[in-house]
Amino acid sequence: MPRFVAQAIPPSTPGMRVGLLGGSFNPPHQAHRAISQFALKRLQLDRVWWLVTPGNPLKENGSLHELGERMRAARDVANDPRIEVSCLESVIRTRYTIDTINTLRRRLRGLRFVWIMGADNLAQFHRWQDWRRIAGQVPIAVIDRPPQSFRALASPAAKALSRYRLPETKAAELADRPAPAWVFLTGLKLNLSSTGLRNPDGSWKGTK
Fold first, then answer.
1. What's this model's pTM, rounded to 2 decimal places?
2. Which one, of 191, 190, 143, 117, lies nearest residue 42 by Cα?
């Protein structure tokens, strides 16, 4: 593995169960931390890796803060030894989630990955590049984010993958299941969003 790539991948040992939470983190906030800790517990994960993307292909990136600033802020917010913050996508120059997942699975064959997303992302998952291949590569955990629940579960992707959905009671088994497999986790009552924490000019609220 090239040294610069190895340095961007958080430390791990074979057999670890790792949740992957991708996003712009513009800015990172307590909901990111709460979702990660919720997933660690409910999915029985060893680690959650925050993959701070250089830019989201489905979003306008004009107000996106510099990657280094978002990385530093994410580490401050995470404040948990089980949560690792990585800029892997900028290092390997991947634009789409499917490419990031393929790289991680190829280089770290001994790890069991789970992709973590909010219900708002499930609602538009069918718009992601190669979304069916993503679902076929790694199990997916969807964290409920009211009032997005109905829209998410009625989405094209949720319907297409309905036969692979596990009951919540089997969430701890997800990392061991072959893809496609997914679970919809309820019970986390926190409704912050990065959009709501940005000023109209793109600056982060509470910062200069």
1. 0.87
2. 143
Q: With contact defined as beta carbons under 8 Å apart, do 179 and 138 qualify?
A: yes
- Dihedrals phi, psi of 79, to nearest 5 degrees: 45, 45
Task: Find tokens 């993958």 and name the residue.
Answer: 161
Q: What is the pLDDT of residues 161-188, one digit of tens each?
A: 999 999 999 999 999 999 999 999 999 9
**DSSP track, the chain:** --HHHHHHSPP--TT-EEEEEEE--SS--HHHHHHHHHHHHHTT-SEEEEEE-S--TTS--TTPPPHHHHHHHHHHHH--TTEEEE-HHHHHT--SHHHHHHHHHHH-TT-EEEEEEEHHHHHTGGGSTTHHHHHHHS-EEEE--TTSHHHHHTSHHHHHTGGGEEPGGGGGGGGGSPSS-EEEE--------TGGGB-TTSPBTT--
Q: Which residues have CB under 8 Å from 196's CB, separation 6+?
A: none
Residues 6+ apart with CB under 8 A from 107: 1, 5, 9
CA gap 191, 42 in Å, rounded: 19
**Number of CB atoms found within 10 A of residue 101's CB:** 22
Residue 9 CB neighbour total at 10 angstroms: 18
* Token representation of residue 51: 């993959």
The terminus-to-terminus CA distance of the chain in angstroms comes to 40
